[in-house]
Amino acid sequence: EGGDPVDNSTAFNCTASCPAAYPYKHFPVEASKIGPYCSPEQIQSGFRLEASTTPMFLLVALACAIFLAFALCMVAMYCRQKNKKDAVKMTMALAGCEDSEPLRPTNVGPNLTKLRIIKEAEIRRGGVLGCGAFGRVCKGVWMPENESVKIPVAIKVLTEVSGAESSKEFLEEAYIMASVEHPNLLKLLAVCMTSQMMLITQLMPLGCLLEYVRNHKDKIGSKALLNWSTQIA
């Protein structure tokens, strides 16, 4: 141990590790003539034995960082999915049909080839949203038969339909409504043929446009009203 082996070749002592006074291990290029030796100075081709654990430490730190980043991503995705589920449940609560069973959003499109006729047992009516000349609209839940889902819907109960001829006309108009696709129109999901005909449509959790106009009439300009009127027409 100690110094240059060429200058001090008779003072060598084989050891398992370099002492503190000669911390750097040197591997000469001409290994056939001179074997590895310890030196007090760091040489370009040598390295400190105590520093040999640094690469392993860096690998462990890098692996931990990657694992932590992956865990954070998984937690973020879980929180995002949970927030979506909570939003759906909140919509149900606002609609007055809160339930702990699994839900599905109301973006269910109508069957454009066949009008879906459902049973009265598949729907559950809630509070009244509004009334008109042809009946009233209730909030509710549609539970399709043989499916474990609940869909928040608006149920339009018609009071003026009576007789076989009226029922036929009602179905023809309902089929046309189910075939219409427009961003400004609510989608018809199904119809229920009972003593009081019912149209099952998407539920708008923010309420109807009429109530919004009434509540914010002082804040709505003529341009917005004209635009809405054009869309409705």
From TrEMBL:
The UniProt record lists the keyword Transmembrane: yes
Keywords of the record: ATP-binding, Membrane, Nucleotide-binding, Receptor, Transmembrane, Transmembrane helix
Residues involved in ATP binding: K156
Top-level taxon in the UniProt lineage: Eukaryota
Location (main, coarse): membrane
Ranges where the Protein kinase domain occurs: 123-233
Membrane topology: Single-pass membrane protein
Membrane-spanning parts: 56-79
Biological process terms in GO annotation: cell surface receptor protein tyrosine kinase signaling pathway; negative regulation of apoptotic process; neurogenesis; positive regulation of cell population proliferation
Protein location: Membrane
GO MF term set: ATP binding; transmembrane receptor protein tyrosine kinase activity
GO cellular component: basal plasma membrane; receptor complex
Pfam families noted in UniProt: PK_Tyr_Ser-Thr
Protein name, per record: Epidermal growth factor receptor
